[in-house]
Amino acid sequence: MTAIALPFAAPRLSIVTIGDGEGIPAWQRMFGWPAGGSGAVPLDARSPATRNIWAAKLDRAVREADARVLIVAEGLGCAASAWWARLSPADDVRKVAGALLFAPPADAGGLFASPRSHLPFPSLVIRPGGVPDDLAAAVDDWGSRLVVGDRVRDRRAGAVAWRQAQRLFLRLTQQMVDHDVDRVRAITGWR
């Protein structure tokens, strides 16, 4: 699996995509990013046995990545990613820098039900259109930040598009860190 290097000494990230198989992925429709990353783990889980096989494939993709991993998931793949992150060995999950989660279902329940705890890495939920109340609860449970919008771009696929994905993730996570630092300073009076 090949990582994509960012300019200006920014960290490299390997992108692992988790599509739900429901047509063109949201990240491709909205931003023009490629359909698959440097590692693609299509979600084909229909039973606990196939779910566990899928999780082993994701474990392997993360372990074999040659840089920290950015998970880009869509639909049910978002709930599957959260389930995996909450229940997989810490050594595998530690390699994940974060996740961009596109249009997760409001209630995945059942096959991907997992303990209600924040994900062990930063995550952004990108939701086209409005946000149902029950999705807001799931986003809060994951400890994710929510980005709502209907941005659509017609861009060529390829490495340039994935660099855009990485820059978006790095920019938004830096904004989250800056915001949290400002909150701590306001609460503590620290300058």
Overall pLDDT: 75
Q: Which spans have pLDDT < 50 for at least 5 consecutive residues?
A: 1-10, 152-157
What can be said about the biggest beta sheet? 6 strands, parallel
| Rg over CA atoms | 16 Å
Q: How would you describe this structure to a colleague?
A:
- The chain has 191 residues and is an alpha/beta fold.
- Helix content is 41%, strand content 16%.
- It contains six helices and six strands.
- It has a six-stranded parallel sheet, with helices on both faces.
- Strand 1, helix 1 and strand 2 form a beta-alpha-beta unit.
- The N terminus is likely disordered.
Summarize the structure.
This protein is of the alpha/beta class and 191 residues long. The chain is 41% helix and 16% strand.
Which features would summarize this protein structure in a list?
single chain; 191 residues; alpha/beta; 6 strands; disordered N terminus
SSE topology:
Blueprint: E1 13-18, H1 26-31, E2 39-40, H2 48-64, E3 68-74, H3 76-87, H4 90-93, E4 96-102, E5 123-127, H5 133-142, E6 145-148, H6 159-188
